[in-house]
């Protein structure tokens, strides 16, 4: 059984009123245990709405979402779903509850009604995993954005979820903070946590093995980042920009240099160009790019 | 952070002192008793004793007296105002006239009474600051929640009150930071906050308060969602990482605090009579 099964999911905000807005328009997806999935899409594509369906913060208007076999519409399973799928939000300031780091991390396990000895163990373990154990007695408002977000991740981990959903959790961070968070979630994924990373940073999506592109509440593309990025024209139509290296490769190709498809990182591109240079292909053809 | 430097009330000073280690409920009970005692005290000898005991607590809690006195700064104006009003408008009839200010008359009795009320104010602020200096906000709210628990049957929402207090404390620095940011943004566009009369200055604050409120409501929405996502469903079923428990030292502290509050509250004459 897959961890998350979404079938023909529709969601309409203010359904039945004149202000009704269709946010999700028939999404079907399966996410297996241990996957690392990036979800990208422009503003209003339905990314956040989809994320909130994964832990029953929103319920389907039509269709169904199953988490570990549990139907999210079933009121009796709401809390079990939320324990299985943890969610990290965009603004680190608006998701920390307590005035001391370790007390914040304890908030989730306390809500689960665990005995205090177990809470202490989980808090320590979670803070160690995200590399924030030294800050356990600190006040959250004195931490950097990346550190706050790592504390927020620790707060979710302490509930021992099977899946971590990051809803634009890197958008408000500086480059250093983004790297801290990306490294943390990669580590977690290696340890078996399913990660769903919602972002509009295409470079981050390129680091994930699977990439889903949403557009107007539908799945527009779903596959390996290399395959998604090779459809440059489709992405352009969806107002999404390629990350720098695939963009450069695609520009070179357009300018007539036969760079191979499926190039993701700088090393690949460099070796491709080097091999073209030894074959002396494209000599005298590159560089005018006047069109 | 400029604004937080001026606000020492409600701040916590982490130390490894015997006072810090007390159960928050013990400290809340002691502060409550002493607050009542401060209102019951009838003469200066009671305040002298209180000052002595509080001095002992300050030393035991490893708090610098300078820091404690700095906490009084925000109330200096209120203090002066109260003392001056009480000197001239005490309503006491007769007595020895000390000096005259136009139609206003200051008698010896009125001055003493005004000073007495001043001592009362200082005492109240010092006692409550000692509580917050030595008790982390989380412990404090836990203590309040647990102390209110017996009243839940009467409809007192103990958990909700404690949760509101925690969130308020958590967001004080965030909102102060945001206020500063908005003030600076408005100043960059030519707003003047330090010119003109009181009315004009108050009006200049409107464009600061409006965005502050809007963002506070947005934050509240997001926080509520984040709390739900972390399985928050009110006080039921909830456990705590650190359960509060009374230790022998709490019993001793409570006994000392009770005796002390009775000692300050009894008037000087009663002590005179008891001792003879």
Name the helicity range of chain A: 25-40%
Shape of chain A: globular
Which oligomerization state do the chains in this entry correspond to?
heterodimer
CATH class of the largest domain in chain A: Alpha Beta
The strand count of chain A comes to 10
Largest interface: A-B, 41 and 31 residues
| Unreliable segments of 5+ consecutive residues of chain A | 287-291
**In which range does the helix fraction of chain B lie?**
55-70%
Strand content of chain B: under 5%
Q: Could you describe the 3D structure shown?
A:
The complex is a heterodimer of chains A (291) and B (276). Chain A is α/β, with parallel strands linked by helices and 291 residues long. Chain A has two domains: 37-59 and 75-225, Rossmann fold (3-Layer(aba) Sandwich), CATH 3.40.50; 243-284, no CATH class. Chain A is 37% helix and 21% strand. Chain A is built from eleven helices and ten strands. Chain A has a six-stranded mixed sheet with strand order 6-7-8-3-9-10, sandwiched between helices. In chain A, helix 3 crosses helix 4. Chain A starts with a strand and ends in a 13-residue tail after the last helix. The model of chain A is unreliable at 287-291 (pLDDT under 50). Chain B is mainly α. Chain B has a domain at 1-135 and 247-269. Chain B has helices at residues 3-6, 18-21, 24-40, 44-60, 65-70, 76-88, 108-134, 137-148, 158-188, 198-204, 206-229, 248-265, 268-275; strands at residues 97-101, 104-107. A two-stranded antiparallel ribbon of chain B has the order 1-2. The radius of gyration of chain B is 23 Å and the shape is flat. Chain A binds chain B through residues 52, 55, 57, 79, 82-83, 86-87, 89, 91, 93-100, 102-103, 106-116, 119-120, 123, 137, 139-141, 155-156, 159, and chain B through 14, 136-138, 166-167, 169-170, 173-174, 177, 218-219, 222-223, 225-233, 237-243.
